[in-house]
Amino acid sequence: MLYCKYLYLHFYIFVTTFVYRTMRNKNKLLIEQLDQKLKTFHTAKETKIPTRGWIHTIRTALNMTLAQLGSRLNMTRQGVKRIEESEEKGSINLKTLRQLGEALDLQFVYGFVPKDETIDNLVNKHAEKLARKIVLRTNQNMQLENQGIKEEKVIESIKELTAEIKREMRKSIWD
């Protein structure tokens, strides 16, 4: 009976470890795949939005009137003007942008570009921020008891904890 409990405990530990490692590897793989997809948007980050918006700029470059674009969208020229104004104000919706893309025979593309170049860098930045907070708070408490650690050890501890937090993908990095 004791042997069965022992086997069950080892099996439970094995399964739990396997599931944990699988989830960790899955998160890492998802981040890598996402970074690969978002890489194509990096050059778009440098593109400046025209002052009057893309719709107005493209329509005028094509020498197309409001009425002509309205005809393609089954709306009045005033409706197209309102759409151009809503884009300029930043209140246009994605459905309208897709419809305009179709009407102008263009493909509407939508995405996000990480400010830190990759999602992996974003995760690392937040993991390091959390690790720094934890290590510095712990070190401060230890200093109050004259048990503080040297600066080099603090930096090393932050790096180690950052790697652990990132590896585990703790949800707390987003708090």
Brief overview, please?
With 175 residues, the protein is mainly α.
Describe the overall structure:
By secondary structure, this protein is an all-alpha fold. The protein folds into two domains: 2-41 and 115-174, no CATH class; 54-103, no CATH class. 69% of the residues lie in helices and 0% in strands. The chain has helices at 2-38, 54-61, 66-73, 77-89, 94-103, 119-144, 151-168. Helix 6 (119-144) crosses helix 7. Residues 2-12 have low confidence and may be disordered.
How would the blueprint of this fold be written?
Layout: H1 2-38, H2 54-61, H3 66-73, H4 77-89, H5 94-103, H6 119-144, H7 151-168
Helix pairs in contact: 3-4, 6-7
The fraction of residues assigned to DSSP E strands is under 5%
Low-confidence blocks of residues:
2-12
Q: Which secondary-structure class do the elements indicate?
A: mainly alpha
Q: Which descriptor suits the 3D outline?
A: elongated
Major sheet characteristics? none
Record field, number of beta strands: 0
Individual helix count: 7
Name its key features.
175 residues, mainly alpha, 7 helices, 69% helix, disordered N terminus
